[in-house]
Structures are given as C-alpha cells and as structure tokens.
C-alpha cells in the first residue's frame, strides 16, 4: 500500500537498546506502532525524561534522529512496526 515513509522495519519480541536513528533526517518524524498480547511496556526517551505506556495498539510519533529511544524486552507476544524516512533515498 502507498506510504509517505520510505522504510518499514518489523520487529518481533525484541528489546531495543537506547539508540538514535543515524540514517534519518532531523526534520522528519518516525512512527512506531505496537500490536500483540504482551504485558504493558515502556517506550523510553531518556533525553526528555519520558517513559510512555507502550500498550498494544500504541502509536508513537517522534524524531528518532534527534532523540535516543528504546524499549525493554517484553513478556508475551509483541510486533512493532517502525515507519521512517531514510535521508539517503531523498537526496
């Protein structure tokens, strides 16, 4: 299906250590959404001191190039869809 994003990553039951997205562009937002049946998690943005409740069905827009972010390992089954733009594709 058509999308404004140039890339999609599908993650399954994966811990994501704090990182920033090197290939992204500062002015663009990413969208991360989660699905499944898992215990509520936290989506953390340590630079802002934010821990969001990351429940199934959550959608989080943010700038992954600017802000480090991460999600701990979960109990249960979690699928994460990470939509983002790659700067190199649009240059």
From TrEMBL:
Cofactor annotation: Fe(2+)
Record-linked Pfam families: Tet_JBP
Keywords for this protein: Dioxygenase, Iron, Metal-binding, Oxidoreductase
Keyword Transit peptide: no
GO molecular function: dioxygenase activity; metal ion binding
Record keyword Iron present: yes
Residue stretches making up the 2OGFeDO JBP1/TET oxygenase domain: 1-87
InterPro entries: 2OGFeDO_JBP1/TET_oxygenase_dom
Designated name of the protein: 2OGFeDO JBP1/TET oxygenase domain-containing protein
Source organism (scientific name): Coniophora puteana (strain RWD-64-598) (Brown rot fungus)
Lineage, top ranks: Eukaryota, Fungi, Dikarya, Basidiomycota, Agaricomycotina
């Amino acid at each position: 299906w058509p999308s404004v994003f140039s890339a999609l990553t599908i993650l399954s039951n994966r811990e994501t250590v704090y990182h920033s997205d090197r290939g992204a562009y500062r002015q663009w937002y990413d969208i991360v959404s989660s699905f499944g049946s898992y215990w509520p998690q936290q989506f953390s943005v340590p630079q802002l001191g934010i821990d969001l409740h990351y429940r199934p069905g959550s959608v989080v827009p943010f700038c992954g190039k600017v802000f480090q972010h991460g999600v701990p390992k979960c109990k249960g089954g979690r699928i994460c869809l990470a939509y983002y733009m790659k700067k190199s594709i649009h240059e």
